[in-house]
């Protein structure tokens, strides 16, 4: 039984294979071999017809179609023929018959059963060959030439000449516009997030796969999602939470006493002045609390408030007072500067109005109301010399030229050129010899100048005291200043109107009148340390004149009422001006004609200002007896503004007749400052 | 009960007394004393132990004034304050070294001059002073005025003896008249003679120093030049032609002129036969080689130096500058210009400082606050003694003779103090 089954199965299989193998080649065939196949098929067909002709078997056709034939296992027939008659299952012999058949029939091995009809079919040689070829994985058609010559229907060779004669169309050279627009559309969609690239999709998938967390109560304090569309939404102010007073059972201190009740009642007319808008009430239990009568009204007013009252964000600036102050370095880092009084130069019998220091820094020169000029040794406070000058000394100035031993002193209407006879003997004698021989006047001095100033020789007594030249002016002198080289000096007569400033040249003994017109009361003049400029301070403004071009170079506006003094930085680009209205002005000449900094440090009029030649220091002395030392750093870098830091107030002078300090000057090399005052002393601070 | 003892223990401190002076040696055992103890009580304790020991040896009792050194500094405050300043733990046994206290110098004499005394020097019982009235005065150590010499035309700012013998002496003076004069003084006859006039300084001469071998002297002044001169009266430079001179005194050029300082040289000192120290207003102290004429080292301060003094005993320099502090520098240290100590007690500028010639710790200082002060270099805040007497600025001082502390000032006097604490070197 088993064997039979197996053989049955085998045979069916073979049959199936044969069927498919018949069709396969045709399917696989390309259209390239159509002709050939046609011929082969024809041949097959003829052969088959021949066989059919020779076969004596009836043409039994089953009409059940391609169905599993085991459906007919229970029946005696296996289907229906063309006429609708049952096809009876052919009679099967038993195993012995089969065996006999096997032994006797030489074609038994190639006999298969046709399942459709139940008939035995003997396979032809051709069928067997076909099956064998398929089994050995060969091309089933034995006539097919596997290694035949390749017929190239479409050549792979590139032809040199085009087939067509016409030129290529323009659109084959330019990018396709429709494609470009499509790409553009895709790109736009991707950008807008409507279309996603594969990469994005992958990332999203990954994100989905990861665990995500949610803020459970995010809507409580975050803005409402819908509100985001409104730019800068201002949420409605929240109502205050109920306080203890609003409780049904408030603590006794919240309940109104008689006085509070009286106040409440008194404010009946002006309810907005009340602290509370209700009277706290006490109930034994929540059950007894009556309905709130004003509830609807309050809700209504609140709604009115919310939509009728525009809400606005208030910009409140919170500026700390410290932030408004400029960031200045600590005075500790700006050392050295004078901090303590070191020496007092006592000797004058009246107010000391002016002081000056010799270029080397060994001696100090002072002029006083006691009509004398004194020269002091700085290191010991020893008065080396006293020169009577016969007038109140309003200005003294040591000649800045180290090769000359010369001081200029103004006493009332006289300008005295004095050789103090102190310092290098050689320089002293040289200066004397220069001054003893007056140069021959080549040009005639105009009468106008003669009326203003006369150059006179001193008397013998005066000569003994060191006075070498006397210049008698027509008005009282107020100030004298030397040019940096020491040949020129300028004097100021405030009452002289247009003749108030004079420039004297020592080597030729001539005086010049630089200005023809009066611009105001001249207070002070100053030579620029490097360039040929003359600074002239009138009451309110400072004019800078170019002495070479003889023209006004610049006019500085002080915005002060009355200028008292000025000093120039050794670099020549910065000027400080002291005024009688308590201000000290710092001008940066490169920056502007207006003050760069205004320092209001003194409580009364400033009398004198001074710059240090080497250290970044400047000082001011005023009538309030205070000497204020400040740090004034000027940078070489033009982009950096000067740094001004007040450092130290030195208040040692005594008060006398409302006058404090008259003159301030720095030591040329050390960070020491000198001040002279109405208390007849000169003080050194180190 | 227990608590009380603990608190008591906390304020107690273990000390041990040692000394280098054998005659005052006491048994070496630690003592537990109150940590707030001061100098006075310590003195009583040590004296008591010492006298106990002496009575055992059948010797007379002593009453000595002691000074106490704790961690190399003199005890001037209560002991616990002193230790806490030094950040010393209280648990350790504190070793206190004691020695006989310096006896206070006594004012001895006052030499009255006609003008400010700006320079002073002592040698072999002779005091020489330079005055602002251009004169030079010679006094005996007993205070007797011997002679007043005029010759300078400016205040005499520096003066030094060169040699003193029994019958004659030579000295050199520098003045603001830019000249240096070498003088010869015949003691017997009482006459002086200006041997040589040194010219070369272009501004006033401020300081002067004679070399230890007396052959040369150096001057400095406002012309910022350091000049070295020969003290030989017959010195003639080879390359300068001898001019015929009217005056008796010969004009002398310097041997060497050393530029280097930028401002006034305020003090100069020979530290040995070749080397010099100069202090200047340009904030530096320079160490020169006087033979070759170069700068060896330089100490840079931040104030103008007014005076300095070098001590051979400890190799340190004390300086005074344009503030009220005295600063101690170690010349031998390689670390540069490190301040080893600062002594502040003066209320004004200090203008003169002098080391003791015998005690390596003692020095005197004088300032514009009219005070002379005697210092121990181990006590930086408090001086040993204040030598009051001057009524105006102190300008110069001298301590060449260990017994005599001399100072001259703007009150026209020279004050002499007798120093009793004289050790032999």
A few lines on this structure:
The complex is a heterodimer of chains A (686) and B (425). Chain A is an alpha+beta fold and 686 residues long.
Structure characterization notes:
The complex is a heterodimer of chains A (686) and B (425). Chain A is α+β, with helices and mostly antiparallel strands and 686 residues long. Chain A has three domains: 2-135, no CATH class; 244-301, no CATH class; 332-439 and 446-685, 7 Propeller (Methylamine Dehydrogenase, Chain H), CATH 2.130.10.10. Helices cover 22% and strands 25% of the residues of chain A. In chain A, a hairpin with a 4-residue loop joins strand 32 (673-677) and strand 33 (682-685). The N and C termini of chain A lie far apart (137 Å). In chain A, 27% of the residues are buried. The model of chain A is unreliable at 1-56 (pLDDT under 50). Chain B has helices spanning 2-10, 39-56, 79-85; strands at 12-18, 31-34, 66-70, 73-74, 94-100, 106-112, 117-123, 126-131, 135-140, 145-150, 156-164, 168-175, 179-186, 191-199, 205-210, 216-221, 226-230, 250-252, 256-258, 265-270, 275-280, 284-289, 294-300, 305-310, 316-321, 325-330, 339-344, 350-355, 362-367, 372-376, 385-387, 394-398, 404-409, 413-418. Chain B has two domains: 2-100, Phosphatidylinositol 3-kinase Catalytic Subunit, Chain A, domain 1 (Ubiquitin-like (UB roll)), CATH 3.10.20.90; 106-418, YVTN repeat-like/Quinoprotein amine dehydrogenase (Methylamine Dehydrogenase, Chain H). Chain B is built from three helices and 34 strands. A five-stranded mixed β-sheet of chain B has the order 2-1-5-3-4. A five-stranded mixed β-sheet of chain B has the order 11-12-13-14-18, with no helix packed on it. Chain B has a four-stranded antiparallel β-sheet with strand order 6-34-33-32, with no helix packed on it. Chains A and B meet through loops of A and loops of B.
């Amino acid at each position: 039984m088993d064997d039979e089954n197996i053989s049955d199965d085998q045979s069916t299989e073979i049959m199936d294979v044969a069927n498919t193998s018949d069709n396969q080649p045709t399917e696989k065939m390309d259209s390239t071999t159509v002709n050939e196949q046609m011929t082969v098929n024809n041949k097959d067909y003829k052969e088959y017809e021949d066989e059919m002709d020779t076969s004596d078997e009836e043409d039994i056709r089953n009409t059940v179609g391609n169905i599993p034939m085991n459906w007919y296992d229970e029946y005696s027939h296996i289907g229906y023929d063309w006429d609708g008659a049952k096809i009876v299952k052919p009679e099967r012999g038993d195993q012995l018959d089969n065996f006999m058949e096997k032994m006797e029939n030489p074609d038994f091995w190639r006999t298969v059963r046709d399942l459709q009809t139940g008939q035995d079919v003997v396979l032809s040689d051709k069928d067997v060959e076909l099956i064998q070829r398929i089994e050995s994985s060969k091309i089933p058609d034995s006539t097919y030439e596997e290694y035949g010559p390749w017929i190239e229907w479409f050549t792979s060779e590139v032809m040199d000449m085009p087939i067509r004669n016409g030129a290529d169309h323009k659109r084959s050279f330019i990018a396709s516009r429709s494609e470009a627009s499509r790409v553009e559309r895709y790109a736009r969609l991707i950008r807008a997030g409507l279309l996603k690239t594969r990469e994005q999709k992958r990332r999203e998938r990954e994100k989905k796969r990861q665990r995500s967390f949610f803020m459970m109560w995010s809507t409580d304090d975050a803005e409402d999602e819908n509100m985001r569309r409104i730019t800068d939404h201002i949420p409605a102010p929240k109502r205050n939470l109920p306080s203890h007073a609003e409780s049904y059972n408030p603590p006794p201190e919240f309940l109104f006493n008689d006085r509070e009740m009286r106040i409440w009642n008194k404010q009946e007319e002006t309810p907005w002045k009340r602290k509370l808008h209700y009277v706290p009430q006490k109930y034994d239990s929540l059950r007894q609390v009556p309905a709130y009568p004003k509830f609807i009204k309050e809700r209504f007013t609140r709604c009115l408030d919310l939509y009728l009252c525009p809400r606005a964000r208030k910009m409140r600036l919170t500026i700390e007072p410290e932030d408004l102050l400029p960031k200045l370095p600590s005075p500790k880092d700006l050392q050295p500067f004078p901090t303590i009084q070191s020496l007092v130069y006592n000797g004058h019998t009246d107010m000391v109005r002016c002081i000056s220091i010799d270029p080397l820094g060994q001696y100090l020169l002072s002029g006083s109301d006691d009509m004398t000029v004194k020269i002091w040794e700085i290191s010991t406070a020893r008065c080396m010399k006293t020169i009577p000058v016969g007038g109140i000394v309003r200005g003294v100035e040591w000649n800045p030229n180290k090769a000359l031993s010369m001081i200029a002193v103004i006493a009332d209407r006289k300008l005295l050129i004095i050789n103090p006879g102190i310092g290098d003997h050689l320089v002293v004698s040289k200066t004397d010899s220069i001054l003893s021989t007056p140069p021959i006047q080549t040009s005639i001095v105009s009468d106008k100048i003669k009326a203003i100033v006369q150059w006179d020789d001193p008397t013998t007594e005066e000569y003994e005291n060191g006075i070498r030249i006397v210049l008698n002016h027509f008005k009282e002198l107020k100030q004298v200043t030397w040019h940096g080289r020491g040949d020129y000096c300028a004097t100021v007569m405030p009452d002289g109107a247009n003749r108030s400033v004079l420039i004297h040249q020592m080597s030729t003994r001539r005086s010049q009148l630089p200005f023809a017109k009066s611009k105001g009361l001249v207070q002070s003049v100053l030579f620029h340390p490097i360039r040929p400029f003359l600074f002239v301070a009138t009451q309110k403004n400072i004019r800078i004149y170019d002495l070479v071009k003889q023209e006004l170079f610049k006019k500085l506006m002080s915005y002060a009422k009355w200028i008292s003094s000025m000093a120039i930085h050794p670099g020549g680009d910065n000027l400080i001006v002291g005024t009688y209205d308590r201000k000290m002005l710092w001008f940066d000449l490169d920056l502007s004609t207006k003050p760069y900094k205004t320092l209001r440090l003194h409580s009364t009029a400033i009398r004198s200002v001074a710059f240090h030649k080497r250290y970044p220091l400047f000082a001011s002395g005023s009538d309030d007896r205070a000497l204020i030392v400040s740090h004034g750093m000027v940078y070489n870098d033009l982009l950096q503004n000067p740094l001004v830091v007040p450092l130290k107030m030195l208040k040692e002078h005594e008060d006398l007749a409302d006058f404090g300090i008259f003159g301030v000057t720095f030591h040329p090399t050390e960070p020491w400052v000198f001040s002279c005052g109405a208390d007849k002393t000169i003080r050194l601070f180190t | 009960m227990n608590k009380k003892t603990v608190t008591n223990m906390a304020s107690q401190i273990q000390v041990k007394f040692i000394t280098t002076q054998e005659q005052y040696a006491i048994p070496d055992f630690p003592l537990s004393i109150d940590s707030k103890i001061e100098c006075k009580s310590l003195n009583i304790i040590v004296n008591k132990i010492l006298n106990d020991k002496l009575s055992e040896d059948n010797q007379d009792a002593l009453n000595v004034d002691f000074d106490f050194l704790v961690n190399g500094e003199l005890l001037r405050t209560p002991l616990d304050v002193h230790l806490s300043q030094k950040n010393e733990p209280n648990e350790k046994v504190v070793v206190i070294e004691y020695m006989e206290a310096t006896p206070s110098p006594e004012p001895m004499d006052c030499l009255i001059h006609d003008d400010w005394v700006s320079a002073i020097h002592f040698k072999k019982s002779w005091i020489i002073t330079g005055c602002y009235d251009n004169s030079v005065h010679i006094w005996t150590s007993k205070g007797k005025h011997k002679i007043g010499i005029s010759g300078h035309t400016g205040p005499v700012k520096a003066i030094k003896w060169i040699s003193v013998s029994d019958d004659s002496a030579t000295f050199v003076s520098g003045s603001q008249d830019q000249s240096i004069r070498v003088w010869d003084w015949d003691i017997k006859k009482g006459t002086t003679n200006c041997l040589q006039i040194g010219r070369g300084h272009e501004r006033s001469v401020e300081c002067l120093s004679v070399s230890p071998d007396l052959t040369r002297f150096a001057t400095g002044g406002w012309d910022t030049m350091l000049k070295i001169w020969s003290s030989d009266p017959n010195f003639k430079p080879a390359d300068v032609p001898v001019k015929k001179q009217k005056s008796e005194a010969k004009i002398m050029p310097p041997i060497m002129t050393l530029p280097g300082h930028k401002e006034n040289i305020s003090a100069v000192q020979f530290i040995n036969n070749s080397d010099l120290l100069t202090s200047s207003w340009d904030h530096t102290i320079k160490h020169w080689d006087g033979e070759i004429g170069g700068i060896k080292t330089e100490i840079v301060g931040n104030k103008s130096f007014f005076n300095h003094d070098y001590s051979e005993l400890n190799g340190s320099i004390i300086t005074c500058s344009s503030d009220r502090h005295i600063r101690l520098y170690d010349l031998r240290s390689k670390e540069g210009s490190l301040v080893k100590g600062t002594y502040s007690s003066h209320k004004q500028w200090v203008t003169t400082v002098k080391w003791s010639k015998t005690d390596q710790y003692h020095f005197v200082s004088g300032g514009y606050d009219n005070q002379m002060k005697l210092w121990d270099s181990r006590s930086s805040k408090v001086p040993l003694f204040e030598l009051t007497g001057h009524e105006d600025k102190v300008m110069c001082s001298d301590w060449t003779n260990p017994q005599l502390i001399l100072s001259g000032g703007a009150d026209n006097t020279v004050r002499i103090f007798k120093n009793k604490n004289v050790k032999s070197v």
